[in-house]
């Protein structure tokens, strides 16, 4: 298996519901924050990619909730890249607080032309940067972190 990029964030009070746990809808937001940080650290400026004629859209997302993260806990979002296709990529995020598995899932992204909104092949420079992070087993891993962002 390749390296796994991990981004850590702190749960804010406003992200918790009346049961005192993170409201389920926030996990995709947390994923988006982690993807943005992964992109910044590995690929570079997202805006430059868009200016170059490539954009990335979510085609499918699935999250399994295992336990509840709570206010002020440090939540690690690990981002194993499970698949790099011709026009798409799949990331299988794993959300953990310490050793507790909070949630996991799968998000499929498709590269498009920002003007026409039609599919485009993944930029070769993006593929070459993400390949070392490809999870060869296709399993969601989240315990190790080869790269991280505070």
Can you count the beta strands? 8
Biggest β-sheet description: 8 strands, mixed
Residues in helices, as a percent range: 10-25%
Contiguous helical run count: 3
Radius of gyration: 15 Å
Give the overall shape. elongated
The arrangement of helices and strands along the chain is EHHEEEEEEHE
What features would you highlight for this structure?
disordered C terminus; alpha+beta
Question: In words, what does this structure look like?
Answer:
The protein is of the alpha+beta class. The protein is 20% helix and 34% strand. The chain has helices spanning 26-42, 46-51, 124-130, and strands at residues 5-10, 55-65, 74-79, 81-84, 88-91, 94-97, 100-112, 147-149. A hairpin with a 2-residue loop joins strand 6 and strand 7 (100-112).
Any chance you could write out the topology, listing elements then pairs?
Layout: E1 5-10, H1 26-42, H2 46-51, E2 55-65, E3 74-79, E4 81-84, E5 88-91, E6 94-97, E7 100-112, H3 124-130, E8 147-149
Short description:
By secondary structure, the protein is of the alpha+beta class. The protein contains 3 helices and 8 strands, in the order βααββββββαβ. Helices cover 20% and strands 34% of the residues.
